[in-house]
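Hey, why these numbers?
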Amino acid sequence: MTVGTAGSPELRPLYEQFHQLGCAGFDYDATSPRELIRGLRQHLQANGVVFLLGDFWRPNFPEASFFGLQSRTPQGAATFALEDNVPIVPCYSVREGKRHRLICQEPLHLGRSFGRKQRREATDELNEWMASIISENPSQWLYWFNCQERWEGDDRRLTEQSVGQALAV
């Protein structure tokens, strides 16, 4: 199962591909938060797997750190890990010519390191992992398209180019 937004022209093809492969999902922007959480919990309790795009950005998401800068990222993975003891399996893909290789790492059990109310801290740890993977090969990062919207306050002036330069250091 996956969560996406059919309203995002940049992400829609990715989630349509999941749908064509038989992967059920929820449209984040068209599903009430209560229905979304309930559906995902039911799926997880039935030993299902949920794909969550961790670097997804919306202005109404909770505050978090991403690349050491103030941003807003989803806390779904941290919520399920802390409240439902769900292991998080960090995955990313690497383009190799015309193919992609999916790399999955060892499961993270965030509930062993964080309390139930430490969503921000757990989310920041997941974001730190994600930033390190992106930094290893920034040209592989799919989600550059709203880079200038991700950071807040003084960090908002960052552009795709300045973040790319920061990654090159």
Notes: Strands lie at 2-4, 25-27, 63-66, 69-72, 91-96, 99-104. The chain has a mean pLDDT of 83.
